[in-house]
Amino acid sequence: MSDKETIRPDGNIIPSSPADPTIRQPSSIIGSSPGVSQSPAPSLSNGSITLNGNTYEISGHIASMGEAEVYKALMGNQWVIIKYYFNNFSPNHEIVEKLKGFTHPDIIGLLDTAWHLNRFVEVQEYAQGGSLADCLPERDEKQLSHIVREVIEALNACHQQGIIHRDIKPGNIFYRKKGKDDVVIGDFGISSPLKPGESLKLTRRFLTQSYAAPELLTGINTKAFIGKEVDFYSLGITLIHLWTGNDPFGNLPDYETTRLKLDGRVPLPDDLSQRLLLLIKGLLTIEPSKRWGYKEVND
Q: In terms of pTM, does the model score above 0.70?
């Protein structure tokens, strides 16, 4: 399977957006219906949608992903993002409930949720500055340090709330405003919940291949035990991508990418400073218990 294909809950392969090559393997996602074909999405590009009494004027279509379409919309004088899930997908219910009652300066806000025409809808804060994927490469090490500080604060807050993001990558890190000051993370579509006292979660292996930690790639029967450490590994790969402007694994087949990660041979740029090189190596440590986390990165 190529990294530009997505596995649906019924096991069939459908094309995925090149900007979001996320592998979503057979799952128990709330709202999924194994064996039900995904119908073409009704166009929201022209018109409006009313959710929980609020009317959103659709400005335009931003992207299509394996599980949803994304639109920019206006409610009154506030720009928002409408994530309109296909009828056999919706995010984890526990994650949605955690995010609805949770605000943090480094996390995109979940403003509302609803069902529309039997499809799940999220209304999210709009990040005016776009994603880091729109700003590649990022060769300013001072700016990279700023991004890292903001992202690890967001991850630490998520982990304290029992949320493993699982999909940290340039396309899911944003600038809240125009300019490069306010960094936030978003898109919790494949996130996993952790109960109080848990450090590991047995979960389906939803992942974006290039950014996935080794432990996500070595599960059994489409499942793997994961913890918050997977998010820090993804941050390490993200830093390589930001510095070079390219996916560090290029067009390598999935099995070769997996082997490089398991062997600790992720290709590293040869022009990194010693400080940045040390940080990335710490984040890409194979063994989760020895991988750099919030404390090590913050020091």
A: yes
Pair (225, 258) in one structural domain = yes
pLDDT digits (tens, 9 = 90+) for 113-135: 999 999 999 999 999 999 999 99
Residues 151 and 109 in one domain: no
For residue 121, the domain's CATH number is 3.30.200.20
Number of independent structural domains in the chain: 2
Q: What is the pLDDT of residues 43-71, one digit of tens each?
A: 586 689 999 999 999 999 998 887 899 99
Q: Give residue 230's domain range.
A: 132-298
Residues 142 and 281 in one domain: yes
End position of a domain, from candidates 86, 109, 125? 125
Which residues are annotated as catalytic? 167
Residues shown for the chain: 299
**Least confident among 14-23, 105-114, 190-199:** 14-23
